[in-house]
Design goal:
The chain is mainly α and about 60 residues long. Helix content is about 60%, strand content about 5%. The protein contains one helix and two strands; from the N terminus they run ββα. Strands 1-2 form a two-stranded antiparallel sheet. The model has no long low-confidence stretch (mean pLDDT about 85).
Length: about 60
């Protein structure tokens, strides 16, 4: 099988370098998403329960 090359480098090495460079940003995005989900869950728990509408008269 012929190896693919980009600018003289094997594709696997280019992809590995790209993933290694992007991993801190990926971790920060995951951290931010988990923090936002936790805040949303806390906000939902803090909200007062919605009162049921009164029953309609017959």
């Amino acid at each position: 099988m012929v190896a693919l090359h980009i600018a003289g480098l094997p594709v696997e090495e280019v992809l590995l370098a790209a993933v290694a460079a992007a991993s801190p940003l990926i971790a920060l995005v995951g951290w931010e998403l988990s923090a936002r989900i936790k805040r949303l869950k806390a906000w939902v728990r803090r909200r007062p329960p919605v009162a049921a509408p009164p029953p309609e008269p017959p």
